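Appendix B, Record 12. Input sequence as logged:
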Amino acid sequence: MLIQFHMLQNYAPSNLNRDDTGAPKDALFGGIRRGRISSQCLKRSIRFSSTFREAIDEELLGIRTKALPELIKKELEDMGVSPADSDKMIGKLNEIIKGSTKKSEDKKEEPNEEKIKTTTQQLVFIGKNEIKPFAKQLKAAYDEVGASKWKNAEAKDIAQKLGVSLPKSVDIAMFGRMTTSSTIQDVAAAVQVAHAITVNALKPEFDYFTAVDDLSNESGAEMIGDIEFNSSTYYKYINIHWEQLLKNLGGDLSIAKKATLALLEAAATAHPSGKQNTFAAFNLPDFILVEVNKRNLPVSYANAFLTPARQSHESTMVQNAVDALGQYLGKIQETYNLETEKAVLSTEKTNLPGCELVSSLADMSKWLGKRLPEK
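Logged structural output:
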């Protein structure tokens, strides 16, 4: 089963997701420059939104960090392991996480022991409920190898003794993870998030600003700068492969349902944090379409906006975008004989084929909840 979210969201002047020059990210689509918000930005805004974190138990959320050794060390010391032994254990952790098959003595440069004890060389996305079992496995491997042989032991041999860490974290189950370590299992993402693109052609603008010294009693600016921004209507697309999500969560139906509904609400209400202190562009979607399909056939409707949407004397850009999406949806449905259950929430007039109209996000959540499997 596939669940798909389509959203149209008009943002006031903003710079929500910056590139390396500080300008809002963009992309060519249909041969025309569009504004863009990266999928990484959208996923992080969802993961850290109060909506998502309040809906999901804290122990079922993951952490992306290089500070895994410190987390493991704390668990080891809580288990009664001496600081000297815990330092030895986590001193080997960097090699294990990195997936190295060589001993540190074989490397050209001796690793910085202090850094190895506090950080890993790669970011690790790990569930909070994985840390304690990992620490127990590490201690068991240390006891088996022995303190005297631990330093020279092969990382791959220790990794085999540790076994594989299996997550049951909602955000890892949704967005997946990839590591180079055989001890931390890769997870295939159950949720796909597209880069949001503007339905309209991008028209960048610049804010020229100055700052004055409050105490100088002199006229003139002490600082001058400028920042690029734009105001655009974005099309957002997200899909959830239900069976993969359920598999990633160890078959826990209750958590999978809760996670799906939390994702819907968070996707609708979470905002990227870029330059929000400057622009405060907190605009909610004017249009949300949810589809449920028994087939795992994802379909984005971004091509509805190959011809950029424009405002007119009769209607807003958002209304024109809703109309364009509805026309394109009808064509795609008829051409490919797509059979999906659909519900739409919209502040604009809409006449989408085969869609059930709901009046609130809460009603949309109830509609979707009734269509999630019971077993």
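Residues 63-168 form one domain.
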